[in-house]
Amino acid sequence: MKTKYMLVAAAALAAMASVQAADHTPAHWDYRGKAGTAHWGDLEPDFATCKLGKAQSPIDIRAVRHGAPAPIDFHYAASNAEIVNNGHTVQVNLPDGGTVHLASGDYHVVQFHFHTPSEEAVNGKHYPLVAHLVHRNDAGELAVVAVLFKQGKENPALKPLFAALPPHAGDKHAVEGEFDLGALLPAHHDYYAYTGSLTTPPCSEGVHWQILKQPVDISKRQLAAFRKLYPMNARPVQQLNGRVVEITG
Ligand SMILES: [Zn+2]
């Protein structure tokens, strides 16, 4: 009898543990509606920085200081790539995509993903799309290089990705051939630099941002292919709160 009771108790504990584990799944969030950008900070305690943070991203780049952040040294390399529809955007994971040397140190590339319209604005103007190239250093700090897209010619670097975007959340597949992130960069590497945050929950701060000034082309058709999956996945611009944006060149 006692043994049976203990087994029942053990089963109940196991059930509780699985409920607790389920509780640690981050809250559902979205760009619009009840779980939209205005509510991120209230969806769960881990997302509080989304509403309490004072150094949030994205921003509208207006007043800039002509400081002299060091030029970015890109050392990207052709890598196997996996393209994932993660339910918020399309992301490309690059296990061996190479490194960058930034003013804040050396980082290796982890992944890149897209937002439409561009999250960052320049003098109030948004671009139709932005790619965020996410890098991490050995200390776990994040640095993002943003590549802005303007409507124009077909972008050859996007071709192997946008020809077969994974249609549903959770879908993923290997990108055919190898992908070299360097092919996505504009010719000129002047950039705006500031310190901000992740632009998605949990909105963690201390992210080193560099936004390349020169946009690259994307065709109307390529843009439509992305917008068919994600018509709008951009967080609104956030308050600067005294932060200074520096520019090279
Ligand atoms: Zn992003």
Automatic annotation (TrEMBL):
Q: What class of enzyme is it?
A: lyase
Keywords annotated in UniProt? Lyase, Metal-binding, Signal, Zinc
**Protein name according to UniProt:** carbonic anhydrase
What residue stretches are annotated with the Alpha-carbonic anhydrase domain?
Answer: 27-249
Q: Name one Pfam family in it.
A: Carb_anhydrase
The EC number(s) this enzyme carries? 4.2.1.1
The reaction(s) this protein catalyses: hydrogencarbonate + H(+) = CO2 + H2O
SMART domains associated with the record: Carb_anhydrase
Query: What family does this belong to?
Result: Belongs to the alpha-carbonic anhydrase family.
> Which species does the entry assign this protein to?
Pseudoduganella plicata
